[in-house]
Structure prediction request, 419 residues.
Amino acid sequence: MTGSSLNNVETAPPRVRLEKEPRLGWLRRSMSRSTPQVIEAIEIDGPADSTQGTTVAGRKPPWLLISFLVMVILPFLCALAYFSVVASDQYVAEARFAVRSLADDGSAENTDMSLMNMQAASQDAYVITSFIHSTEILRRLDGKVDYRSMFTERQADYFSRFEETASDEAFLKYWESRISAYIDGPSGIVTLSARTFRPEDSVELLTAILRESEILVNEMTQRAREDMVGSFRQEVKRTGELYQAALANLNRFRQESGLLSPELQAQETGKLLTGLLAQKMELETRLFVMQQSNGSNAPAFKQMQLARESLDQQIESLRGEMTGGADSSLANVINNYSRVETDRLVAEKLYEAARNAYDLALNAAMRKALYLTVFVQPSLPQESLYPKRISSPLMIFLVLLASWTTLALIWASVEDHRL
Prediction:
């Protein structure tokens, strides 16, 4: 066969057999990509050619390592640089106080009373801590302490300080992160701390907060006292006015009647009437004796008769004063006096009862009076407690590592189910 005919004959393509490697998990494949691996073995049946041979697939990027560097190492290095170099020192001043009442100082009669006192103390402490984390204390501190400038210092790092142009609501959230108040439930002791960028600012701010808290406790005590004794005070005022009106009526009656005490006047009139009746009986006895002795024509007899007539007139006059029908009679005067005096006595008793009730309520309110006792005064911090330059980056690293591991396992599980 000639060479031309040989050239015209088409060479049959070589037979290729592909052998695939067994399936591996995504995580296992990713970890093994650091070494070369033959994915397919190409077996050619036919004439060997110098340009043909076994080929090796190129490596894929190590996404697992890249994700670890991006999600864990890089953020950790940034956090480490921030806490080591950039973060500003923050100083913490601490104080401890308790909200007590005079009733707590006395010994409780039983366990139930002790539990009630502890619950009341805890409730009062919660009121104070809620006040410390509210806009009310900011309103009260405004003008007394320049608290905003303490947190907007330019010397502080950008991530720690507060922006001057931010809203009041944003500052309240920032305030809650810088002012801490912890309550010990059983004892009701409040641990208050303030964190600023200068030691003097922490002490000044904490002292101002304690002062405003004490003012609030006094206001609460005054308000509770008014609620408890207000009605009793009004009753004392009302009964006092009634008593004063009764005294005025009695004095007016005495002035109109001209008698200081009609009862005493009646007693004196009665004594006088009794004396006149005795004199009359004596004269009548003497007149009877003279008549029996035929001495009725004697001048002495006529004089005694005149004396008896005079006594009769005086007796009738006194009887008229005591029991006459006129309004000015002593009986009517005594009757009116008794009515006025009874009104005075009733008003006096009502006033005394109201006064006693008011005193009891006032004593009870005083026993329940609240007062703020600071037993750990704020002191100037000597060293900064924040930021945590070692523990904070370490904690961030652990959180990032846990998050990356979780995501990697989830992605590996998804890839395994796709293959």
Remarks:
- The mean pLDDT is 79.
- The first helix runs from residue 3 to 8.
- The radius of gyration is 55 Å.
